[in-house]
Amino acid sequence: MIGLSHYLIVSAIIFSIGLVGVLRRRNLLMLFFATEVMLNAVNIAFAAISHYYNDLTGQMFAFFIIAIAASEVAVGLGILIVLFKKHGSLDLDDLANMRG
Amino acid sequence: MFENFIASIMTIEGAAFYVFSILTIGLFSITVMSKNVLYAMTSLAAAMVLISGFFFILGADFLGVVQLVVYVGAIMALYSFAMMFFDATKDIKEKTTSNSLVFLLGGLSALVLVLMFAAPIYSENIQALYPMHEGVGNAQDVGMVLFTKYLIPFEVAAVMLLVAMIAGIILAGKKMDESLTEDMSADDEILIIKDEK
User: Fold this and answer.
1) Is A96 within 8 Å of chain B by CB?
2) Is residue A42 part of a domain?
3) Is residue A100 part of a domain?
4) CATH number of B1-91
5) Range of A37's domain?
6) Span B181-192, mean pLDDT?
7) Which residues lie across from A91 on neighbouring strands?
8) Within a 10 A sphere around the Cβ of B2, how many other Cβ atoms?
9) Fewer CB within 10 A of the terminal residue: chain A, N end or C end?
10) How much is the ipTM here?
């Protein structure tokens, strides 16, 4: 049988993939993709815990995470478009203009 | 151990779990590793469809449908529309730091986070606050809890989505990259339009 730990292990693997993406990427759009990966990993863990503990709270939190992800993408993509109009690039190394 | 694995893969749930998890992990790795934005976005969308499969296996039907509608339908469509503003066809050149160090650090910090959040679950003192009811559909059950116990967070989330929508329109709209208050060219435009009339 598939237990709770199976789902948690898959969720942990996906989360670490997203974290590696956040640490490794230099392009802002790719950083957004990596964030979505991490949010999805957390949603899997919430749904699995909700199922195995017979409790609806996990699913509720997953709903709110989806709502937050949607608004984050709307605002973030607007900022990315403004940045691209201004600098012509989404690379973090090009955008760094405060050299200490 | 190995016999357990064979036995679990024989059930429909087990087979579906393994297929979904292998495909999801592979597609997410493509998302994170790919140099092309279009490949990354397509594999992300496919992996999100497969994640809704996990939700259907777990009996969270309504969550699976919301995942399909919101993530695959809305968020990925938003990304693909935003892609029209960027040059998506050429490969991204990135100056990457040492890869093995990043993998080690990413893996370790993810492990620490998972242990932190999994420890209270395994200590067995979690009680079901809002238990699922037998013989009631998942959507009905979710609705009962969402509109009674979680009504205020639900309304706050609605206001947050409205704010995000206004912010998106203002940020991405035409001529909005210039300051509205400081420069006077916007006033000139209005005057020109008035003169034309």
Assistant:
1) no
2) yes
3) no
4) 1.20.120.1200
5) 4-95
6) 57
7) A27
8) 6
9) C
10) 0.91
A36 falls within a domain: yes
Contact criterion met (CB below 8 Å) for B148 and A58: no
Task: Determine the Cα–Cα distance for residues B183 and A27; give it in Å rounded to an integer.
Answer: 32
How confident is the model over A29-55, as pLDDT tens digits? 889 999 999 999 999 999 998 898 888
Split into its structural domains, chain A has a count of 1
Q: Nearest C-alpha of chain B: how many angstroms from A95?
A: 13
Report d(CA B160, CA B164) in Å as an integer.
Answer: 6
What string of DSSP letters covers A10-62? HHHHHHHHHHHHHHH--BHHHHHHHHHHHHHHHHHHHHHHHHHTTBSHHHHHH
Query: A12-26, A86-100, B55-69, B160-174 — which is least confidently predicted?
Result: A86-100
Reduce the DSSP state of residue B181 to 3 states and report it: coil
Q: Which two tokens stand for residue A40?
A: 């999805």
Q: Does A30 map to a domain?
A: yes
Q: What is the pLDDT of residues B138-155, one digit of tens each?
A: 888 888 888 998 999 999
Interface test with A, best of B10, B98, B130, B140 (most A CBs within 10 A): B130
Q: Please tell me whether residue B58 adopts helix, strand or coil conformation.
A: coil
Place of tokens 């109009």: A85
**Mean of all residue pLDDT scores within chain B:** 81
Cβ distance of B28 and A18 shorter than 8 Å: yes
CA dihedral A68, A18, A2, B48 (to 10 degrees): 60
Tell me how far the alpha carbon of residue B12 is from its chain's centroid. Answer: 27
Q: Are A87 and B177 in contact (CB under 8 A)?
A: no
